[in-house]
Amino acid sequence: PAQIVWFRRDLRVRDHPALAAAAAAGDVLPLFIIDPAFEGAGVPRSQALRLALEALRSATDGALVIRRGSPEQIIPELVREVDAGAVHISGETTPGGRRRDARVARALEEFDVPLVPTGTPYAVSPGRVRKGDGDPFRVFTPFFRAWREHGWRAPAQMPERWRWVRSIESEDLPEERETDARLEWAAEPQALKRWQEFLEEPINDYDAARDRPDLDGTSRMSIGLKFGTVHPRTLLADLEDAAPHRSPAARQSFTRFQAELAWREFYADVLWHHPASAWQDYGDQLRAMPYEEPGEEFDAWRAGRTGFPMVDAGMRQLLGEGWMHNRVRMLTASFMTKDLHLWWPHGAKHFLQHLADGDLASNNHGWQWVAGTGTDASPYFRVFNPVLQGQKFDPRGDYVRRWVPELRHLAGAAVHEPWKHEDGYSHGYPQRIVDHAEERREALSRLEAAKA
Ligand code: FAD
């Protein structure tokens, strides 16, 4: 009988265990459901989804079926229509996704058709790696060690020839959205091409270059990983194959890259065990912290008009490109939580709206890490200095000039301190909205009060 593969965060045909399982059992009906729940996503993520689906439609030789509506209605209808033997999925691990899958499994019970999960969007499925006593990890480094020891499967073998079910009509792809965001790596072939190019050479310097937003020193795999157009297992296997042929310094970069992939897995594990930490403080340490309500300063932060060049460059990169460099994600998040004294979910929501790679687990726990409310809590008293961060990680000022045209007339690192230059504000760049030294003191005194 026909096998339905319901695609979600796994929009690819390579290294896809659920698709392989379906193909081994019969003809495959590839399905994607545009769930009304997805409509909250911003323009970059919606358009990225469209690109990923276009590629999936070609990869399935046009057989991909698109439907709109609630999965627990659509799937039983299709099961009846094609007399399907099973519905295959990559297991979902987010709180909302798990609830939805449980509803679909229940709706399928009356047809006696199983919802079969094979694999997840992670190399090691969330919930698998645990401490000796069975408890989940709360700190990254021991998680990373245990995760490596646990290991992962080899990439899935896919069939040489596909047999698709073709008798079913499809609705249209999601509509095309106008955006300047950089989304080309959302589709499977482009994501793999980018990865091969990165693996060829740039990855050798990753350890040093990854902190420099002025360079193209990171993989840009986050968007492919978000939509599952690449699987981390594929990346990990390629790293393993390439490592023996590289220098010791390059191998250090490989380990660093592996650790960054493990951060993604760690945060998914944290969310799996603590679904409430998606939108509430993970830890109790700052429960009594007094916060401000978002107002004009929050608006200035969102628009990239705080008067702090490195912060503004980051916020404008987010709006322009649908992506922000990790170093600057940390800095802008620190500025919102510690200089403006706002609770982290306000910023997390804004990021999710605009990031093409916006991911509940990585984003919201990344925010909590910076805010000092999360796992591994970075000590709350570590407040990023926006000027020093700029001078250190954008030493020539190129990143700021790329995103802040009002400062392009300043040469080199001068862009980081327009207030020191007579013509610093001659092209309309805004004055600083706060005094960083003062807000740092304020953040620390709030902390003392919260602890007392
Ligand atoms: P690379 O440096 O090439 O890293 C390779 C991969 O490792 C990334 O694609 C990503 O999957 C993973 N990774 C790297 N760093 C982290 C990290 N700190 N946490 C989790 N995974 C990581 N990442 C997202 O994918 N989606 C988000 O919504 C998101 N929001 C973030 C919000 C904040 C406040 C912070 C501090 C970080 C956030 N990150 C998020 C993590 C990180 O910034 C991005 O994964 C990274 O910038 C993506 O670029 P890249 O693929 O070139 O990264």
TrEMBL record:
Keywords: Chromophore, FAD, Flavoprotein, Lyase. PANTHER family: CRYPTOCHROME (PTHR11455), CRYPTOCHROME CIRCADIAN CLOCK 5 ISOFORM X1 (PTHR11455:SF9). Belongs to the DNA photolyase family. The keyword Flavoprotein applies. Binds 1 FAD per subunit. Its cofactor is FAD. InterPro entries: Crypto/Photolyase_FAD-like_sf, Crypto/Photolyase_N_sf, Cryptochr/Photolyase_FAD-bd, Cryptochrome/DNA_photolyase_1, DNA_photolyase_1_CS_C, DNA_photolyase_N, Rossmann-like_a/b/a_fold. This is Deoxyribodipyrimidine photo-lyase. It holds the Pfam family FAD_binding_7. The lineage of its organism: Bacteria, Bacillati, Actinomycetota, Actinomycetes, Micrococcales. It comes from Bogoriella caseilytica. GO terms for molecular function: deoxyribodipyrimidine photo-lyase activity; DNA binding; FAD binding.
